[in-house]
Write a structure and sequence with these properties.
two-stranded antiparallel ribbon, homodimer, about 230 residues, 2 domains, about 20% strand, alpha+beta, three-stranded antiparallel beta sheet, DNA-binding, globular
Chain lengths: ~230, ~230
DNA sequence: AAATCCCTTCGATGCAGAACGAACTGTAAT
DNA sequence: ATTACAGTTCGTTCTGCATCGAAGGGATTT
C-alpha cells in the first residue's frame, strides 16, 4: 500500500551527497566505470575503513551498486538516472576552481569526454546541434523525438520499431557548455559504436576521450562536422 | 602531473539537501511561489528559530533567494536550474516515484489566488492595471495613492476620510507575474467583499480561489475585465 | 603452510549541526 | 501608545557521524 501523498524524501539522497569524501567518489564514478573500494578510498583521500562506511551509505541510498569479484568489490553508479541527477547537480554546484576559467582554458578539460555511458562536451553538443538541424531529432516539450535517417545507421544506431514512445533519446545538460546533448539508449549506442570502430579511445582513469584520425574523418563525412575547430589540441 | 582538484562541490549542495526539514521546505517551494519564513517553518514542522537557520543555509547554498517586504520575508527558489535539479532528484528519491512533483508550468498555478488577506495572481494584476488606467490608483514613489471613484463602492471598498495619510493601498509584488498588485486595507476589503458576495470561493488546502459566474460578470461590469482570457478553466 | 592483499567490523574520539527556550528588533494593526 | 506579530540572535543540549587504529575474515599467491 502506498502512503497518502507524502513529500519526496530528498533528504535521504541529500544525506548521501552531503559529505565531500562521498561526492569525490561519485565524481570518480561518473564515467560509468566500476572502481574498487581502494581506488575510491584513494580518490577521496581517506582510509579503506572510512571508504567502506561511505560506500555502504551510498549503496543504501541506491546511488551505487556493488559487485563482489574475488577479493575485490567493484562499485558503479546504480543507473542512468543517478548520473543525470549528478549532471544536473553540477549545473548549480559551485566548483573548486572557477567555472568560466575552466571553459576558457584550452585543453584543461577534455573537449571530448563521456558522461556515464554517452558522449558529452563540446563535441557532443555540436553533434546534437547537427541532429536537430538535420531534422534527425526534434525537441518536444523537454524531450527528444527521434526521426529516421541514414545518418543513424552510419553512426551505429539501431532505431527501435516504435519511435517516440519510450525515451530513446534524452536531452542531457552539459555542465560546462550549458547546452543540451543526447543521452539515453541513442547516446549510448553512438558512444559504444565510436569506441568499437576506434573513432575514439578512453583516456587513463578519467572520462576524457581522444578523438582519432578515423573518428575525425567519419564525423566529417557523416555529419559534416569540422572537428578541428572543436578540438584544438 | 595532476592538476589541482577541480571537481564540482556536490557536497555543498548535498549538505543543504541533507536535512529533512530543509527538503520539506524545498518541496513547498517547488511550485515556484514565494513563502514566508513562518509558512515554511510550519511546513517543515519546526519552530521559527530553527527555520531561520535552515533558510540561511539554503541561501548560502544558492538554492533559494529571500526578499524582505514589510515585516515578512519571502523565500523562493533561486532559479529554474534549482527546480530542474530537484525534479531530477525526485526521480531518484524514495517514495516519489508515483507522485510527480508539481512544478510551475504555464497555467499550472491557480490563476486566481489569495496572498494572505488580498487577491494575487494574474487576476489581481489585471485589476490593478485597470485601477491605474482609470486613475483610481496612482503610483507615487513606490506607494499607491488612492483616488475616489464609484468603482470602489461597487467593489465593496470604504475609503477612509483622510486619504494618503497611512498606506491604505500598498503595492505588492506578485512572484509569478513579477508585476504589482494591491495589498493593504484596500486589497483586504476587495477580497473579503468578493468572498461575501460569492464572487469567488476558497479552495481546499491552499491559497487557490475559484472565480464564480457572478464574480466574472461583476468584474466585467465594474472594471470591464474579460476574465475568460485570464482563467482558462 | 605461510604470506599477502582487499575488505570489513569494532571501539574511541572529536566535531558539526539540529532543535528549542528566552530574549530582542523591527514592522504593522488598533 | 499599546499591542500583536514576523523574524532574528544567543546559549544550551543532544544526537549524528566522519575519521582512524586495531583486529578479524576471506581470497589469492608463493
Amino acid at each position: 500500500m502506498m502512503t497518502a501523498a507524502k513529500t519526496p524524501r530528498f533528504d535521504i539522497v541529500g544525506q548521501a551527497l552531503s559529505d565531500a569524501s562521498r561526492t569525490r567518489m561519485l565524481c570518480e564514478l561518473m564515467d560509468g566505470r566500476a572502481y574498487t573500494n581502494k581506488e575510491l578510498a584513494s580518490a577521496a583521500g581517506v582510509t579503506a575503513q572510512t571508504a567502506t562506511a561511505h560506500l555502504r551509505l551510498l549503496q543504501n541510498a541506491d546511488l551505487i551498486v556493488a559487485e563482489k569479484r574475488g577479493r575485490c568489490v567493484f562499485n558503479r553508479l546504480a543507473n542512468e538516472e543517478v548520473a543525470r541527477m549528478l549532471e544536473q547537480l553540477a549545473v548549480i554546484a559551485p566548483s573548486s576552481s572557477l567555472h568560466h576559467v575552466q571553459r576558457r582554458k584550452a585543453g584543461e578539460i577534455a573537449q571530448v569526454r563521456s558522461c556515464y555511458d554517452h558522449l558529452a562536451g563540446p563535441l557532443a553538443v555540436a553533434m546534437t546541434e547537427q541532429f536537430l538541424a538535420r531534422g534527425l531529432l526534434r525537441e518536444e516539450n523537454g524531450a527528444f523525438a527521434v526521426r529516421p535517417g541514414e545518418e543513424w545507421q552510419k553512426l551505429g544506431v539501431t532505431l527501435p520499431q516504435k519511435l517516440g514512445r519510450q525515451p530513446f533519446a534524452r536531452p542531457c545538460m552539459d555542465w560546462t557548455e550549458r547546452k543540451l546533448h543526447v543521452s539515453g539508449p541513442l547516446g549510448k549506442q553512438v558512444l559504444s559504436h565510436a569506441l568499437e570502430r576506434g573513432w575514439m579511445q578512453r583516456n587513463t582513469h578519467k572520462r576524457g576521450l581522444t578523438l582519432t584520425g578515423p573518428g575525425r574523418r567519419a564525423l566529417q563525412e557523416i555529419l559534416d562536422l569540422n572537428c578541428g575547430e572543436l578540438i584544438n589540441a
